[in-house]
Design brief:
The protein is α/β, with parallel strands linked by helices. It has 10 helices and 7 strands. It has helices at 6-24, 43-46, 67-71, 92-96, 98-103, 129-134, 136-141, 144-154, 162-172, 201-205, and strands spanning 53-57, 61-63, 83-87, 120-128, 177-180, 186-187, 213-215. Keywords: Transferase.
Length: 225
C-alpha cells in the first residue's frame, strides 16, 4: 500500500488543470483545492512511470463481483483508447448541452443510448496511464487553448470535474474511450427524473444484465443483498 499526500498531488495537478477548472467546477473561479477533482485527467503526468494502469473509483460503490475482473477490461481497449468509462445514466448532459442541441437539432450529443451520446460517469474509471502518456491527441486536449475551443463549440459549463471533461472530449473524440458496460457502474441516482426529464428518464436509466458494481450517487441507498 502506497499512501499519496493530497497536498503534494494537488500541487502537481494545479498547473495542468487550472485552465479547465473554470469550465467544470461548481464554484465561481478557480479554487486550488478543486484540482483534486481532476486527478484522473492528469494521472499519467504525476504517477511514477512504472505505474502503467490504474483503476480509480468513487467511495459510494458496492462490489458484486471480484474487482480483478474489471482489470480484464483493459484487454478490451480498442487501439487509440486511453480510458475505460461507463455512460452517464441520467439526462444530465441532455440538460448541459441544451444550447448546442438547439443549434444542432440533428446531433446525437446528449441523446440516450444505444445510438445517442449521453456523456460519461466517472464513478468507475480505467486509466491506461501508458496509453495516456503516449497519446498525442489526448495530451493536446489538456492544453488550455483546446479546452477553451471545445467549451466554446459546445457552449459547455459543467460542475462535475473530470466527468465533464471526459464527456466533452468524448463528444469530439469518442475513439479515446473504451465504453464500459452499464453493469460495471450501475448508477442509482434519479434526481433528474423529478427535475424536468421524467418523459425521457428511463431511456437513460435502464441497464440490462447482472450488476457488477452499484453506484449510490447523489446519496442514493444501495440495495441490500
Amino acid at each position: 500500500v502506497i499512501v499519496h499526500d493530497v497536498n503534494e498531488l494537488t500541487e502537481k495537478l494545479f498547473p495542468i488543470v487550472e485552465a479547465m477548472q473554470k469550465h467544470f467546477s461548481a464554484g465561481t473561479g478557480t479554487y486550488y483545492s478543486d484540482s483534486i477533482f481532476f486527478l484522473s485527467v492528469a494521472m499519467h503526468r504525476i504517477m511514477p512511470k512504472e505505474i502503467t494502469q490504474i483503476i480509480q473509483v468513487d467511495l459510494d460503490l458496492k462490489y458484486k463481483t471480484n474487482i480483478r475482473d474489471l482489470f480484464d477490461e483493459f484487454d478490451n481497449f480498442p487501439e487509440g483508447a486511453v480510458i475505460g468509462i461507463a455512460r452517464e445514466m441520467q439526462p444530465v448532459y441532455r440538460h448541459t448541452f441544451w444550447q448546442y442541441r438547439r443549434e444542432n437539432p440533428q446531433t446525437k450529443v446528449g441523446d440516450p443510448p444505444p445510438d445517442g451520446l449521453p456523456g460519461f460517469n466517472s464513478g468507475v474509471l480505467l486509466l491506461n496511464l501508458e496509453a495516456m502518456r503516449q497519446s498525442k491527441l489526448y495530451n493536446q486536449l489538456l492544453e488550455p487553448a483546446m479546452v477553451q475551443k471545445l467549451t466554446e463549440k459546445y457552449h459547455f459549463k459543467g460542475h462535475l470535474g473530470d466527468q465533464d471533461f471526459f464527456t466533452m472530449v468524448g463528444m469530439e473524440h469518442p475513439e479515446l474511450f473504451h465504453v464500459l458496460d452499464c453493469t460495471w457502474n450501475r448508477q442509482l441516482c434519479t434526481w433528474w427524473r423529478d427535475h424536468g426529464y421524467s418523459d425521457v428518464f428511463d431511456q437513460y436509466f435502464q441497464c440490462e444484465g447482472e450488476v457488477k458494481i452499484y453506484h449510490g450517487n447523489c446519496n442514493t441507498p444501495i440495495p441490500e443483498d
